[in-house]
Amino acid sequence: MTNHIHILATPKDKHGISLMMQYIGRRYVPYKNATYGTNGSIWEGRYKASLIHDEQYLLTCMRYIELNPVRANMTKSPGHYRWSSYRANAQGKEDKLLTAHPLYLSLGKT
């Protein structure tokens, strides 16, 4: 998205999400500043994280994230948005950044 990001992640341990966000901040922020001639943080504040306990809500969150660029009129199809997981999840295209969630895989191949 142009003004925010959504990351739906299942950590391997209790510190996984905070370490991931720390890594993104240490790697992406310097890259962005160097590439676009800016400086300082790109974040307005600390990231917000919520636990998803309900299986149905996980699928709802996945759908919300993948359809967000369509609702924002950034693209007509979620598969056309460059950073979408839709191509991997809905179309089965390989994406080295993603690992399909076991719950999603349990829905079947079609």
Considering the chains and any ligands shown, give keywords for the structure:
110 residues, mainly alpha, 2 domains, 4 helices, 0% strand, globular
What can you tell me about this protein's structure?
It is a single chain. This protein is mainly alpha-helical. It has two domains: 1-49, no CATH class; 50-110, no CATH class. 44% of the residues lie in helices and 0% in strands. It is built from four helices and no strands. The chain has helices at residues 16-36, 55-71, 86-91, 102-105. The chain is globular and about 45 Å long. The relative contact order is 0.11. The model has no long low-confidence stretch (mean pLDDT 90).
Content-based structural category? mainly alpha
Radius of gyration: 16 Å
Low-pLDDT runs of 5+ residues are none
The oligomeric status of these chains comes to single chain
What distance lies between the first and last C-alpha atoms, to the nearest angstrom? 28 Å
Number of domains: 2
